[in-house]
Every structure is written in structure tokens, then in C-alpha cells.
Amino acid sequence: MGQAYETLTHYNPPGSDVEISPELALSWESSDDAMEWTFVLRQDVTFHDGEPFNAAAVKALVENVRDSDFATSWVFGPIAEIEVVDDHTIKFTNEWPAKLDLIFSSAFGAWMVSPNALENGADWFAEGRTAGTGPYQITSRETGARIVMERYEDYWGGWEGNKFDTVVFEYVADPTVREQMIRSGDADLTRELDFENIASLQEEDGVSVKIEPSYANQFIMLNTAKAPLDNVLVRQALAASYPYEEVIANLVGGLATPAVGAIPQSMWGAAGAGFPAQDLDKAKELLAEAGMPDGGFEIEYWAYEGDPTNEQLGEVWVPALRELGIDLNITVIDFNAAMDAFWNDPESAHHAVSLNWFPTYVTPFDPLFSPFATDEYFNVAAYSNEEFEGLIFDADAETALNEEAAIDLFQQANQILIDDAAAIFAYDMPMVWEIRSDLSGYYYSPAYGTVVQVYDLER
User: Fold this and answer.
1) Which CA distances in Å does 268 have to 75, 103, 160, 402, 404?
2) What would the pLDDT profile of 266-304 be if each residue is shown by its tens digit?
3) Strand pairing report for 297-304 and 352-357
């Protein structure tokens, strides 16, 4: 997606001179109350299908996302009215104050797509087509195997220098095979390798390891719809039993930082929550209070395939759970299959499932809302709490004009999640890339999760 599509604005890495810079929008301005925003768009840009990028295309995209049931439709929720001022000027009027320059930097939902392609529907895209303004477009796709992308000749950024004409994404589930490929040079870029091998990779000739800050975190969702985890005391006991320090020290090589709930420490609004710690005595007391002093039950733990850490997060938990009289059964499962199984019948799905989250855009609202709001697609905890949701929506409405008030509300909501033990918040993740050292131009912004721009790379 990040190679084929672009946003109006771009969120820069921490420490940059400016937080948000132009991409498809050249400039923008807002009213003092953040209710009206006007964007001036880049000219002479076309979509992959040859259609012009203009204000009408932006309007069509925003309306398509906002009025849909997409998991990311909420990003344009504040926008009430859209006015095409001229071909390259567009004005938005909000229902409540909102930072649209931030929202239009979103890694999900805010990609600009050709209006003609939108009319073709999801099946057209699923066949392996792109209709963005980005430097590359899909030319072939083998489901579950590879995607081949070729440069878009009319890309507005041009093709000067020694840029790559072709990009091949290989889907290789086995991290050991991926590691062999990056060591041998059969792959140029990869991630999600075993943390225990990072030190040796750092010594490998021809390989450069990039350990980046991120806005991502790793947690274990606890299914509140499935007994005995429908009892908050049991969930609190599980949270107290988790070996947080061991996980950070051993599974992620000491590279991660302790979590303070759903909001990553690196993101604004995170301060205020305490660090979790393993306390088996407390866990036993909570189980006794729940009427299960000897445990006596099993936990079905699902780990998504392709990332060894997901499975290891369960394995390292086993000794503590055994001490509580609880057995942990680990199943490695395809992500889409797991999501389908949960939404078909939450009560017969997992008890616990590992999930890593990086934001749609850089706001505490997202890691609180998307995985934990009632009936949201990624809420595989089946969690629902009206007070919690009220707080995060109030906080979102305060963000544009009163960030201090927003932070206070976000922190209150975060504490409710911790108290309800909707998840076990393991750690805030680093983003680790392994890249062949003969490549130059590497650039990474943590606002975009797992995207390294191939267009910037040269050999």
C-alpha cells in the first residue's frame, strides 16, 4: 500500500524540524477553532489509471471512506461538509474541532485513490490492481506468495537517479528462511526475525540492522466473552501472572520498553499509568476471590503465524500459569482465519490472542478505540465499556484545541482498560529492519508502521 498510494500530508520521524510536511497537498490553513480547513493540492499528478488527481478526487475518497463500514472509516468522522473550491483547492468543514493536517497523514484510510477505481469495488482491487498516485503499481499478484510492482512512469516525483524499476514482495512465513535470505542477499529488506539473532546479524557483512523507535505496542487480548475470562477477577489474575520483565529481557533482547497500557510511551498522552509487574501472590488471591483458588482451567492461546514473537509470548507465560493450576494451549493460526473464527462465534474462539498495534495516525484515540471499542473489527477481546468509550470520544474532541485536557481524558480511559484487564500489555515495540548495507536512501517514519519507501532506496 505504501508504495502505491500517498496521503495529502506526511508525518515525519521524531526529532524532525517539522512534525507534518506536504505530500499531495502543498499547503493548508485552518480557522482558529479548527472547524474549517483549506488544502491546496499538488498539480500535474495522475493516478495509475491515468485519471487526474484533483480536489474532486479527494472529495470522492473522503466521502467513500467516511460513509462506509471500513475499519478505518472513523478517521474522517469529524468532516461534515466538503467544498471543491477549484481543481486544486478543497475546503472541509468539521462537526467538531479536529486536526485535519494530522488526520490526512493517516497510514490507513487516507490513501488517495482514483474515483473511477473506487466505483469498481473491492473485488477489482483484490485481483491485484492499484489506483494510487504512488511511484509503484502492482503488475502481478500470487495470493499468499508474492506481489510484483513496477514503476509508474508518470509518477510526479520523477525517476532521476538509480531508483528501482521493480519491487518484489515475497511472503515467507518462516522467520528462519527470511533470515537466511537477508544474510545471503536473496532479500534486500525484511523484518520480524528472531530477536535472539539480532546481535549476530549486526556483525554480518552486507547486512545493516535498523532499530527504530515506533508508536507500536504488543499486547495479549483477553476474550471477555469466553468463560472463565468473562470474570474480571480472572482476567486481573492473568494480567498479574504475566512475566513482563522476562519477556523484555529475553524475547526482545532488551530492546523494548515496558508498556503503560494501550498508549505507547513514545506517543503523546501516554504518561500517567504505572508499569505492570508480575505478582503471582496477587494472582492467586484474585483467583481465590473468583472462586478458583486452584485454577483448574485451560487457556486457548492463539498466535498469528509469520511473527515468532507471537508464539513466544505464550510460551514464556506457561511456567507462571502452571504454578496457578492453569494450562496454556498454543495454536499458531493465520490472521484472517483467526479473525473470521472470532467474529463467527466469540465464545468458541480463543481465550487469549497476541496482537501488535501501530496507529492509523498518531493519536492516542486509535490504540484505545480500534482494538477496544464495542464491535470494532480488531476488538478480539469482545470488550465493551460505555464510560471508557465516552472518555475517548471526549478526548478526541478536545485534541485540536486543548491537548492537556485531551491527555487527561485519554489517561483516564487507559486506566479503565488496565483495571478491566481487557488485555495484557506486554511492551512497547521497537521496529527492527534488516536491510542489505549496499542500499542507500533508507528512510523510516514510525507513523507508517511497516512501510519503508522503496522509492527512496538506491543501489
Assistant:
1) 18, 15, 38, 13, 10
2) 898 887 777 889 999 999 999 999 999 999 999 999 999
3) parallel
- Tell me the three cell numbers of residue 175: 522467520
- The boundaries of every CATH 3.40.190.10 domain in the chain are 1-171, 172-210+433-459
pLDDT (0 to 100) of residue 316: 96
CA distance 275 to 358: 20
Q: At what angle do helices 403-420 and 386-398 cross, to 10 degrees?
A: 160
* Structural contact between residues 4 and 149, judged by C-beta atoms closer than 8 angstroms: yes
pLDDT for residue 195: 86
Encoded amino acid at 112, one letter: M
SS3 296: coil
Longest Cα separation, the chain: 70
The fold of 1-171 is D-Maltodextrin-Binding Protein; domain 2 (3.40.190)
C-alpha cell at 42: 499538488
Neighbours of 27 (CB within 10 A): 10
Q: What is the mean pLDDT of residues 331-338?
A: 93
Name the fold adopted by 217-428: Dipeptide-binding Protein; domain 3 (3.10.105)
Residues 120-131: tens digit of each pLDDT? 888 888 888 999
Could you give the CA distance from residue 105 to residue 23 in angstroms, rounded to a whole number? 9
Q: CATH number of the domain at 172-210+433-459, please?
A: 3.40.190.10
Are residues 37 and 27 in contact, defined by beta-carbon separation less than 8 angstroms?
no
DSSP 46: B
- Position 83 pLDDT exceeds 80: yes
What share of the chain has pLDDT > 70, as a percent? 100
The angle at the Cα of 426, spanning 424 to 430, to the nearest 5 degrees, equals 145
Rounded to 5 degrees, φ, ψ at 358 are: -125, 150
User: Which residues of the chain form CATH 3.10.105.10?
Assistant: 217-428
**Which helix (H) or strand (E) is 427 found in, with range?**
strand 423-428
How many angstroms separate the CA atoms of 413 and 391, rounded?
Answer: 6
